[in-house]
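Reposting from the mailing list since nobody answered there.

I have sequence plus structure tokens for a pair of proteins and want to know whether others read the tokens the same way I do. The first protein:
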Amino acid sequence: MQKTILLALSGGVDSSVAALLLKKQGYNVIAVFMKNFSDTKNPLTMECNYVEEKKMAQKMAAILNIPLIIMDLEKEYKRDIIKLMYNSYSKGLTPNPDILCNKIIKFPFLWKKAKSLKADFIATGHYARIKKTKLSYELLEGKDKTKDQSYFLSQLTQDDLSHTIFPLGELKKSEVRKIAKENKFPNHSKKSTSGICFIGKVNMKSFLEKKIKNKKGAILDENNNLIGRHPGIMYYTIGQRIGNRIGMEITNKINKKLYVAEKKKPNTIIAVPKDSPLLKKQIIKIKKLHLINPKEAIS
């Protein structure tokens, strides 16, 4: 009996090729386009980015002759991802919204929709692999080490993995583009998306300033000398290179590249050269450890 699979189709080359491969494997493929964020606009057309992506998804669905469903999850995305992201940054943390998005939005809502359609599986164009063992399902990195996305899937659960397929896990990006070109896909050379999940590439400081007010503080070197001022420690992350280009005011002449080594409360940044021992931590504290396959022993 033919199995039905619900595929997240973004309009990009990866999900398009994933749909093609699944069809060739005999699946009944149903595509879904997720509208999660409509605030980001193309600087040239001033059209919401998601509109351009939706048009390409519709075009690819027509080419592949598969049905396409549009899911509007913007309310949930802003409530559960964006709000939490702002809250974390305001506390001086650097969250990864892509990980949270996959955990809370993309995979749960895909599976919920799949069940309503009586589909057997869900699929995405992620570069990752799933291996079934006697005890559990394992999440493995994709064959293409330069495009591996298993890190962004690190909060998925056994239940998630049990009904998910990653068709591109054994392929390299170059192979995916080649397949798309051979099949005359209009997006075969389309640039890969970057930045925040469903939002795209944005100036992070400008994005955060929409909700988080500036709070000026000092930038000190490793000898506690004042070398500049910053608009708020929440806008920066450990390891980031400092400079005027990211909204800082460097008052002392610096002859070498300096990086954020520490964000000291209440509002001070310590910046050091890349060879400084302050950038080489010996102890890392892990909070809220998530085990994808908890039944397997930790060695």
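The second protein, same order (residues first, tokens after):
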Amino acid sequence: PVMLKASAGGGGKGMRAVAKEEELEEAWESARQESKAAFGNDDMYMEKLIVEPRHIEIQIVGDSSGKACHLSERDCSIQRRHQKLTEETPSPFMTKKLRQEMGNAAVKAAEYIKYEGAGTVEFLVDKKRNFYFMEMNTRIQVEHPITEQVVNHDLVREQIKVAAGVPISGKNYFPSMHSIECRINAEDPYNDFRPSPGKITTLHAPGGHGVRLDTHVYAGYIIPPNYDSMIAKLIVTAQTRQEAISKMKRALDEFVIEGVKTTIPFHRQLMDDPTYVKGNYTTAFMNSWVMNEPEEE
């Protein structure tokens, strides 16, 4: 099997998995049309399809002298239509050996192109822990806060410093705690994640030790239909993964947004899902996901 991808793509657009040779031409044309409409560019490439992999990325920073370092991994395997829903670090699938190999590969790639700034090298990892380069995101990513929480560095600050010519030490950083991020989207998880633009009438933010909320919305804010549906990032940090999951449950229970539908109930159910709690998920996790009906108030 192969995967077709748009060269100019992102966000899951212009991608097609092809299992049989006779399906290739139709998938190629369909992906090209989607890519042309989304990006104004229909250049495509083809790669080996890794079946049910984990999506694990390495955060790197490079300076103007050509030196780079990594700040360990983020596991982004919980996805819907190639869009990440939640991320965590360290990955429950990670081993010391695999982290060293993936970290070294990411740093080597960054140094080879003399990359300057913060960036992310993304990999697919199969069940035997073989990893395959997927792409590089040459920017600060949505999920960067979980890395900040576990290595105790402000990545935006580091990006500004390297842009100003300040050299990095070259030392790599490893997670000292566990951090999870839930992307809160204005979508209805009980209705196939249909977008839910509109006016937020009530907003109560969660708080407490180890709870961080990155958002631009407030009570009275009107969510327009024209843009990405993400309205907040809820990040929790604790000593262990189990504690982080418990903390995320409490934070999600405290988080109240009324006036529009959000993915808060999805994340709350996810934190109780046995496969997620065991850390045994892959990018295929959402293919079989079914929401439990909301409890009557």
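Reply #1 (J.P.):
I read it the same way you do. The two ends are 48 Å apart (CA to CA).
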